[in-house]
Design brief:
single chain; about 400 residues; alpha+beta; 60s Ribosomal Protein L30, Chain: A; Phosphoribosyl-aminoimidazole Synthetase, Chain A, domain 2; 2 domains; four-stranded mixed beta sheet; 11 strands
Length: about 400
């Protein structure tokens, strides 16, 4: 939906009119005063607070994201931060900056997307603010609660801990590529293409993991659980945890689960590359035969001679697929560090997509290794993932 057309605009109804239209998205008994009154955390639990800001043309655009999807992603990002701390959500506030020439229905659909995500976890919008701005932005503050001894922190990884991913990586970045370049993945089925797009537009915060962790750690009160979410990429999460904990890591490339749909892309690339090599070999054979005939009979035209170089039509390279997996971001999985025996139990309970991908080591080097020798070992860093204010 376009934000600007001849429909009812924000400036036509003003601040109070817009607030009146947005109030149905919030519980009547909470909103309406100068501040929200929400129940305090249960006895013994700590309050967890997080804030994320989404800005037009930085985090989303009309080209790839509907207003409902913008709302969903805004809520998911904050709920994922709570999950990354081991906290169950209590509520959120929404700060919305918007221009007067934005269509009212665009704002309403934004809030519909927020609620669609929040209602999965019974999380209310408890308040917020709106203001006029030339650039649309959404600032969300989320509140949660967690028992102190169950808080997940980046800084407590221990040497020997196993590194666990709760699910696959790279599909959100693959979905974005498909939205920006529809010719990518023409060999994929419609279902496969939509699964990539859905992963980008409707990511799922992994709050479902918290009860599993509680059960696994129930009798392990002395265990400190390290981790964070992978919203800025899998490599970023591993590096950030190691830096905060003062440790190193070895990640095994062969243990990182590739999403089935991206694995299909990889197989197609390999198939076409093999076909290309066969085509090139046949071309060389035909050229050699033509030269032989030319030497005997003069130049002979062969209508079956290959013309031009082999190309992988609308496909990305294997290196690009791995770049999406390691550095693509916005998959909102959890990356956790815990003792090996507990890690194996967690992976088994999480099921498909979860895996132990490496181990925490001494020192401060963070290596991605490939036991097959297909790829050279490389040191992971923050230089390739998403970072605000990076000079390019």
């Amino acid at each position: 939906m376009s934000r600007r057309n001849s429909s009812l605009l924000v400036r036509d109804i003003g601040e109070q009119g817009l607030l009146a239209r947005l109030q149905p998205f919030c519980p009547r008994d909470i909103v309406g005063d100068d501040a929200a009154v929400i129940p305090a955390p249960e006895q013994g639990q700590s309050l967890v607070v997080t804030t994320d800001v989404l800005v037009d043309r930085v985090h989303f655009s009309d080209r790839t994201t509907s207003p409902q999807d913008v709302g969903w992603r805004a809520a998911a990002a904050n709920l994922s931060d709570l999950a990354a701390m081991g906290a169950s959500p209590l509520g959120i506030t929404v700060g919305l900056s918007v221009g007067g020439d934005v269509v009212v229905s665009w704002v309403e659909e934004l809030y519909q997307g927020l609620n669609q995500c929040l209602q999965q976890y019974n999380v209310p919008i408890v308040g917020g603010d709106i203001c006029r701005s030339p650039v649309v932005s959404i600032s969300i503050t989320a509140f949660g609660q967690v028992f102190p001894h169950r808080t997940i922190r980046r800084s407590v990884a221990q040497v020997g801990d196993a590194i666990v991913v709760s699910g696959v990586h790279g599909i959100s970045r693959g979905g974005l590529e498909l939205l920006l370049n529809p010719e990518f993945g023409l060999h994929l089925t419609q279902t496969e293409r939509m699964s990539l797009i859905h992963a980008h537009q409707r990511p799922q915060p992994r709050l479902d993991i918290l009860p599993l962790l509680e059960n696994i750690l129930d009798s392990q009160s002395s265990i400190s659980l390290a981790g964070m979410d992978s919203s800025d990429g899998l490599a970023d999460a591993v590096v950030q945890i190691c830096r905060a904990s003062g440790v190193g890591a070895v990640v095994e490339r062969t243990r990182i689960p590739l999403p089935l749909v991206l694995n299909k892309v990889v197989q197609e690339v390999r198939r076409q590359e093999a076909g290309g090599r066969r085509q090139e070999a046949e071309g060389r054979k035909q050229k050699a035969e033509s030269r032989r005939k030319e030497s005997l009979h003069g130049k002979v035209f062969n209508p079956l001679s290959p013309v031009g170089d082999f190309r992988r039509d609308a496909l990305v390279s294997l290196e690009q697929v791995w770049d999406w997996v390691l550095y693509g971001g916005e998959d909102f999985e959890l990356v956790l560090c815990l003792p090996t025996e507990l890690a194996e139990v967690l992976v088994e309970q999480l099921g498909e997509g979860a895996a132990v991908i490496g181990k925490i080591t001494t020192g401060n080097e963070i290596w991605l290794k490939d036991s097959t020798g297909t790829y050279a070992d490389e040191e992971l860093s923050l230089s390739r993932g998403f970072q605000h204010f990076r000079c390019t």
